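Hi D.,

Good news: the full-assembly prediction came through. Inputs first.
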Amino acid sequence: MRASILIVVAVLGLLTTGFTSIAKAEDREARPEKIDMTVPPFWMSSYEEFNDLRPDQKEFYLEKFLPVAGKVPGLEKLSKEKLKEASEWYQAWNSLRRKLYEACHDNSSLSATCEQAADVRIAAINMYANQKQENRHAERAEKKKKTASGR
Amino acid sequence: MLCEYIMKKQASLQGTFKKSFRFATLCALVAVAEVGSARNSCGENVAVSTVYFVPHVLDYCSSPKPCAAFKRAVRMQGSGTLPGNKVLKYTGKTEDLGSCGTAFGASGNCLIPYISVAADPRYYSMGDIIEMPAFKGKKITLPNGISFTHPGFFIVQDTGGAIKGKNRFDFFTGSLGMNNIMNVFGTRGPEDMRLADKTECSSHKKFDVVRRGSGQYSMSLAAIESVVNDIYSSSSKVVVASANSGAR
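Then the structure:
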């Protein structure tokens, strides 16, 4: 009798531990501790990457990024002045970047917006891409492809 | 496999040879394309590499005035350098390079021969470091006679329309073209340093990535900066990546 009670208690204990760890794991999955922004996808330039760009690349980036950021929850009220201010201060730029990364990470309905944000970064960088013949041909082919697909 | 299965299904269900033949042709085309792309791929951590350079007018013409041969090279390479740190673009425009003696990369930084590399910005942040252990300790001599020991690290500072994919890299070799005997990364360089042929998948092209902002980054950047200081010790300071970089 005693033995069977002990077995029941042990089984219940194991089940409770199992449920708790599953719940904890689910919780961890739902709220990731930290998003690694040093690896792709690069939805936004890091402060350092942006800082190294030439003045016209920076201007282009800020101008094109603002309307895209406006579609991201938490960044709707971002103004041109605030974005420019953030571009001169690591902490502010990074907090903005983290908001975008978290939104892109958590919200699959934002995937098109996040892709647009990533494209703005690439377009700004590519303003001074190497222009050897092979690269020019590839760029032309890419443009043609995009025009044909209506993007 | 999938193609084979669908073709069999089509043939059995509809009994029409024409449709399955059309599909077979499409499958063949896909297979050819796949073989082609496989030929360009060296596996995930082996670089599919090419080299690029910026021609200098005095290597092509007897005077600083751009001659036909130099203009041709500029059209091919996209730009070329003129005396007084000026660059002539393929569009015909000239630009002042300031203290940079080579060319500016898409990152906004001055390109460093045998250290700067162009990569796909979709996979790499400007300033990311590509570690290629096979190059560590290799002696390299520049056209101006300055020698340096390669740190085994390259830095992503440029992009290009044809440089697409995770392991596709275009290595900057200063003013030396890929067939120049002095270009150690070129077609006539030592076998264990050649990077000009993208179809060649040798073990010396194995690489790892040190991400800008990761813990390891500061040390790798310092190794590059030490080499760059050796190269440019007599001339003005060259910024490799902005001072804010490092682990955060």
